[in-house]
Amino acid sequence: LTAVDWASIRLPTALVCTMARLSSLNELRLSLTDDVRQHLVSQYDDGKTTDHFQRILDAMKIAPRVTTCRVNRILATTDEVVSQLREILLERGKQREDVKICNFSIRKHEAFDDVVVISPEDARNRLSGLRTPPIGLQNDNSGSKQMFGKGKSQSERGPWPMNNCVIICDRRCGEAVLRGSDIFVRGVICADQGVKEGDEVAVYADLQESATTRGLMLEKYTGHCVFLGLGTAKCSRAEMFGRSKGVGVEMYKRAGPDHPPLNSVLTGKMMLQNIPSILVGHALEPQIGDTILDMCSAPGGKASHVASLVKNNALIIACDKSRRKMVTAKKFFNEMGASCIVPLALDATNCVVQD
């Protein structure tokens, strides 16, 4: 027999098994380019508190503790929206048998009378309150195949949860989930083969923008994803990738503060919008009869807010260089009843007519 130098042997690239990387929100570290990081560190670190900037990055992983809705005064009043939201969330809480949804506090904002604030009964940070499901053990040699369907042992399951099927959604869908949304079928990019309606699923968000093919089998996924929470599948795997619309997963536990499920709630009468964006319209103080130019309008939230503040008694020119985005924005403006807005697919940096 000849001695073999195993260290010198290199397997072909195609045979090297790359395993998916799973993180919790606690473990996730936000990365910035060196120049951006250096600039922000110079602004936020004074040399005394060197971890201040890192605390800011850590806070960016957590959804705000409250949900803010901006009322469209063209079609509704704030009092109407508050009353209707209470009825809707009470009904949804009963349907889902989720007392947390029934107990959300709904009130007017103290400073902005066209803003509704929704907060959970317990608004404390729950980032670490939901643990990731138990994963398969890579060094398990017991051969046990009882914990997961399709006859897979723990070692065959790899890094994925043993007691739950897995759904992976895209990054934008994942951000919406942390703000209270359920998962629509168009947001699902990867799923366990055995997923069927009614299954409890562990939900992850893919962090590699446009790097994962939609419909990929879970065992072939080799990217980096972050755990978002647990939900109930509302259809089978085949239907998730075969349908063009509808809810694929109904969430009931999230890795973060609780937020109400507001999918398609009071469409036209209100929209979800963060306070910094709402502040822009109030700072502008639009007056009846004004002509207002929005030079980077898509998706249209701020332009529609201005229309709401003047109740369509102004002329608003909404521009964006993306025709696709402005087609979508036009539909949104119509939905909000904002008839004073003229949407244009136009690059605002090159829109001056030369004599």
From TrEMBL:
Highest taxon listed in the record's lineage: Eukaryota
Keywords noted in UniProt: Methyltransferase, RNA-binding, S-adenosyl-L-methionine, Transferase
One of the Pfam families matching this protein, by short name: PUA
GO MF, one example: RNA methyltransferase activity
Disordered as annotated region, ranges: 128-156
InterPro entries named in the record: MeTrfase_RsmB-F_NOP2_cat, MeTrfase_RsmB-F_NOP2_dom, PUA, PUA-like_sf, PUA_sf, RCMT, SAM-dependent_MTases_sf
PANTHER family linked to this entry: NOP2 YEAST -RELATED NOL1/NOP2/FMU SUN DOMAIN-CONTAINING, TRNA (CYTOSINE(72)-C(5))-METHYLTRANSFERASE NSUN6
Record-listed S-adenosyl-L-methionine binding positions: 296-302, 320, 347
BP term (GO), one: RNA methylation
Native source organism of the sequence: Trieres chinensis (Marine centric diatom)
Protein name, as recorded: SAM-dependent MTase RsmB/NOP-type domain-containing protein
Domain called SAM-dependent MTase RsmB/NOP-type: residue spans: 202-355
Similarity comment: Belongs to the class I-like SAM-binding methyltransferase superfamily. RsmB/NOP family.
CDD domains (alphabetical): PUA_NSun6-like (cd21150)
Gene3D superfamilies given in the database record: PUA domain (2.30.130.10), Vaccinia Virus protein VP39 (3.40.50.150)
